[in-house]
From TrEMBL, chains A, B:
A GO molecular-function descriptor: DNA-binding transcription factor activity
Protein name per UniProt: Rrf2 family transcriptional regulator
Organismal lineage: Bacteria, Pseudomonadati, Bacteroidota, Flavobacteriia, Flavobacteriales
Species of origin: Flavivirga aquatica
PROSITE patterns referenced in this protein's UniProt entry, alphabetically: HTH_RRF2_1 (PS01332), HTH_RRF2_2 (PS51197)
The organism's place on the tree of life at top rank: Bacteria
One Gene Ontology CC term in the entry: cytosol
Pfam family, one: Rrf2
Keyword DNA-binding carried by entry: yes
Length: 137, 137
DNA sequence: GTAATTCCTATTAAATTGATAGGATTAATA
DNA sequence: TATTAATCCTATCAATTTAATAGGAATTAC
């Protein structure tokens, strides 16, 4: 299941994509409109900024803005920042690979091959979807 | 990420599929061979039995066995029993549908459509995979 | 009747997630 | 320069879920 962090993050990004004009969008506005606890949303947008997906402007009239056009922002990147690995087991993760403790040989593991398939299918969706698709192009 | 419950469950099913002969397979044997805490595995196999995937025989020389041939046991069923919904959000779940609290209209939700796509791709993998595939046909 | 097994319920420990709190820092503007 | 309004940062807490353990009841083979 998707964490609320990810869901809130996706909604916020969509909101920003839709309302991009001259000035950055403020956390308070997004929180109110999308019914997200403001302080929680703050921390999520901070994560997105640190990862390079969002930029920010501090102080009065500050807020957040996209660093690239919505059509350039891939779901693979967004999901990895918000949700972490796309794979269902660490041993098939491309970006966060880890050996499973309980597996002497992962090529003999019955779960391994199945999870590679799932990973590839999921990845294909996220690779071919951008923020523009979410915000209704 | 897959829960350990699911991973252990899949490994145990694979083990049973591979060693099916006349007599049922015992929890202790599986636990030892697959390095799974025995009591934890007990509860997992109990779940699988209650769902109808496994059968059991009590008492001395008892144990667990598959209710159908490995090639008849679909991953969709196994995953739903062990891991729960296949969808990443309740509002796109086929078997466990629930409205999202924070969504006034799910057809306008930017996350909804994306998650339907992911669900369908994942589902296609699980639909076309059986325990026979896991246990090396 | 004894030993070996599944079955059942309850409990606990650890990890993760969701949310909150309080203030430091920065920038616009009057 | 003081005020206001925003992001930024760190810490903490509460709730939930996950992983594992404990102890014994019920059942069956021999």
């Amino acid at each position: 299941m998707l964490s609320k962090k990810t869901k809130y993050g996706l909604k916020a990004l969509t909101y920003i994509a839709r309302s991009e004009g001259d000035s950055p969008v403020q956390v308070g506005e997004i929180a109110k409109s999308e019914q997200i606890p403001q302080k929680f949303l703050e921390s999520i947008l901070l994560t997105l900024r640190k990862s390079g997906i969002l930029g920010s402007k501090k102080g009065k009239h500050g807020g957040y803005y996209l660093r690239e056009a919505p059509s350039e922002i891939k779901m693979t990147d967004v999901m990895r920042v918000l949700e972490g690995p796309i794979a269902m087991v660490p041993c098939v993760s491309l970006n966060y690979y880890e050996k499973c403790e309980d597996c002497p040989d992962e090529h003999k593991c019955s779960v391994h091959k199945l999870m590679i398939e799932v990973r590839d299918k999921t990845l294909s969706v996220f690779k071919n979807t951008t923020l523009a698709d979410l915000s209704g192009s």
